[in-house]
């Protein structure tokens, strides 16, 4: 078949395609088949070329399957658009990060730099908090801004802790409030709030202590004021008011030391120096004060030792009292004028009192009640609570009531005659008083309380019968009872009670030679306690213990070494 196809050709599906040869025939047949009914409208007549173009167009539009191939594209495009929208919504932060955000990044960079520099909050627009909040205003869901505000909150927590450590409670509270706003609370914020409340309570207490310290200074008690200021500084080392107050205490104590030295009161001067060393170990004038005290002590020690030596010599020579200056009484008084707390001088006066009591008993035995009374009066001035003196006075009173007993040895009055002069009521009262006195002595109530002590009860019994053997023996044995109680208190570590018993002994037997050894034992115990306080870091306690020891034994060589440790902080 090499000619033109003039006939219709069929496609594989049996459809007939128009050809150039049959186009006119197709147009004519189609016109006949599809001619519309006459509707009265003007008819348009097409020439042959127009008919062929129309037929070609019609052939393309009516090609089977062409419409269906184009129809599925639009739903597909719609699905793609929906998928892109969902993806964009879900990945908007990532998408945003891919977009140019010059302004936001600039704000975030400045915020992070402010955080690094410690500019956490403020009102000028340059603080980390303000800048991070500005970034969130630009982009509410920005992760860097949100994390930055969290870091600012944590930095505020650290700032509050540092402020509390420095004692700045107001600054700590401000930082804590900022942290609460940024972090929404939390355990750190709660902890800080509790610490601030506690600190404010401590500040209130510190204010009350400052008032007390200032009152103590006004009352001339600088050592008490210093102890109060030390309490404040122990709880708040940065308290400027307490630190300044302590400096004033140092100046007042230094002035008091000079005053004590000028007045010749070396014991008081030494105690004030120790207080000053305990409160302000680095006080600038402390070395000079120590040197002045040592120099004054050297000058007085020679005079003091000489006065005591002369007093002992006068005692041995029997020059007890008199109008001259070369008597035991005069020399011991001179020694006490140099050192009012000197134990040897006090013991010397006690020995003078004992000698006077002995002379009074001798006068009473010889029947000279008037001379005995004068001697006992002198002894009373020196040792008013001496047990021997009390017994002698009771005997003198009994002898005055019974002149016939003069010249007899004390206690030789026939018991039958003495008892005959007492009523049954007096006898019963006497026995009751002796029993009460013995119980009081066993209970440690030797000299106190007044009226209920063993000393007073025995004296009341002797007032009824000055020669009652039980009452006289009990009164005279009180010193040995006190020594036993002293030893018990010392071995038990009750140094305060041991000191009380030693004072009782000084009243009851002021001239007792063994008291010097007891004083040294107690002084060493106080120094042991001072060293324990130093080892525990309790400098005020060590200073107080040293003061007790110095009063008991001012010449003990241990005092200087412990004092040096106290001054040096060791």
Automatic annotation (TrEMBL):
SUPFAM superfamilies: TPR-like. It comes from the Bacteria. Keywords: Membrane, Transmembrane, Transmembrane helix. The chain crosses the membrane at residues 72-90. Residues 1-67 are annotated as: Disordered. Residues 1-14, 30-41 have a biased composition (Basic and acidic residues). This is Tetratricopeptide repeat-containing protein.
